[in-house]
Amino acid sequence: GREPEQIELVENYAKTTGLWADALVSAEYERVLSFDLSTVVRNMAGPSNPHRRLPTSALHERGIADEAKLAAGKVEESEGLMPDGAVIIAAITSCTNTSNPRNVVAAGLLAKKANQLGLLRKPWVKTSFAPGSKVAKLYLEDAGLLTELEKLGFGIVGYACTTCNGMSGALDPVIQQEIIDRDLYATAVLSGNRNFDGRIHPYAKQAFLASPPLVVAYAIAGTVRFDIEQDVLGTDKNGNPITLKDLWPSDEEIDAIVAASVKPEQFKQIYIPMFDLGTIEEAESPLYDWRPMSTYIRRPPYWEGALAGERTLKGMLPLAILPDNITTDHLSPSNAIQMNSAAGEYLHKMGLPEEDFNSYATHRGDHLTAQRATFANKELVNEMAVVDGVVKKGSLARVEPEGKVMRMWEAIETYMNRKQNLIIVAGADYGQGSSRDWAA
Known about the structure:
Strand order of the largest sheet: 4-3-5-6
CATH architecture of the largest domain: 2-Layer Sandwich
CATH class of the largest domain: Alpha Beta
Order of helices and strands: HEEHEHEHHHEEHEEHHHEHHHEEEEHE
CATH superfamily of the largest domain: Aconitase, domain 3
Strand content: 5-15%
Helix content: 25-40%
Low-confidence stretches: none
Radius of gyration: 25 Å
Largest sheet: 4 strands, parallel
């Protein structure tokens, strides 16, 4: 979709600066990595860590797929209950591998074959499709695949960050209550790039990252106890078993659709108008007009009052003693704000209805909301938060010297009022994860 003039400009620039590939032929490298493409297999990532590669052939070995639990789940399903390991969210999201048309087309082709064979998604699976570009809609429509995805529940819900950023929306209240009542091991499968504990949804105990076609397959399977490579997804009209290999499109099928339906003019249709700003109205003042009641953008006090005071490393008390793998999603989550959180209570007092709370990420320009996001992760394990002799999971801290366990934000406020210096004690990989200004 790029104009010849732009291509020529980039080529000339790259050649002039020595970045053109021909100029690198004689480059010498300190080390050379070899990669055998024949060893590549179908993979997912998780649970809980995006860097934890999970070959789908190793689901049993890793203790995720489980025949006994799958069988028990089928009994539960026959009784109208959700199974252990229920996939409550299956989302094709806007980032990473969804930017590749081949992956989106593969999902559409898998959905088409599933529809032809009469397969359905499980009723407890909340499905969504949020491509990062409106072009995806155009080439899927051109290929006749958008309706196939819609039949399985993967209709387009928007063109932005959704499930990957904890913005999948509310579950069906009946499903949510069953998860709570049974303390069900519920999961999410998404084509995003982050799956840290507590990020994707408050009621998804763990999440797995997968390609768009695998997301569709898991919506049909309905549980991660299912061996997605081997187990039977259903039967055809003749009673023959259907497995993933019967649905998975070939490279040739995918390439044919991409060649025929992904077109330069689609990108021009979407992106040229996007960058046409038209007439720009000049503001009366270059200074921002701060609104004192805004919960999105508030004048920051970082160089005023107590926050501008002298900091020392003396007389510190621990706010939290934390284990390994504390991520930015523990430090300052970006996902949906709940009413029973410190930030939720604050927004409620500010007059916002719960349906307009939005996410922590969208409120990070308001320090009064963002401060209340500090360690506001329900999966946080603070070893100081001991209740009845047991460490209690959640956004909790213990205020000293009283030894009183309370919500993390209330503990922080208490210490701020006392002008008490604090320290965090944490294990390996503290602060890993998505970039997050407030986490820093």
